[in-house]
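Our preliminary data section would be incomplete without showing what the modeling component actually yields. Below, a chain of 214 amino acids is followed by its predicted structure, encoded as tokens that our downstream tools consume directly.
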Amino acid sequence: MHAVSDAWASENLHVIRTLMERSALYRRALAPVSLATGALGLAGGATGWLLGLDTARGFAWFWMAMALAGLGISLLIMRRQALGAAETFWSPPARRIAQAMMPPLFAGFVAGLVIVLPAWRDPLHGWWLPGAWMMLFGIASHAAGFFMPRGMKTFGWLFALLGAALFLYVGSRGQNAGLPSLRLAHLVMGAAFGGLHLAYGLYLAATEKPKAGA
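Predicted structure:
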């Protein structure tokens, strides 16, 4: 029993030490990931608006597809950077970050599935999703912030607070009372997931310290 406990403690200590050593590397990786995700979010918001997707199911399917595209792009960028730095892509620290983010991201996926079920016929029901997704993504980002640069926690809090404000606003309007067309929700998603990611990526790029010896 003691041997298992010692091995677990040793592994945790190794992971923590590795995360601290790679903090600068993760910070550099966040900039292109945030910029790419931000560009995709802005494009998604504009596309959803221009296509006039104003049904709850269409809105949910569209943004779930955008989320999968964003995840795929992020993984490709991180894999490319890991290969360039001669680092293992799916390392123990990377697994810890993924494990920390997985529960709220899974909850967001389930929330989307609920909206696409046939029972949800009213388009305005989809207005519950942007706030819920923003809160859950904020929680996921904050969880990842325990293993990454400190700004990630602030970024997560910003998403969570904005999502909570939107969620409460939608709830205060009552069912179908005074809510605009769901088409406007595409612009909200674009501004949040596109604009905030783009701003964070630009901040990271502008404040990145030059590599030693450069």
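The chain has a mean pLDDT of 81. The CA atoms of residues 114 and 196 lie 26 Å apart. Preliminary results of this kind motivate Aim 1 of the renewal.
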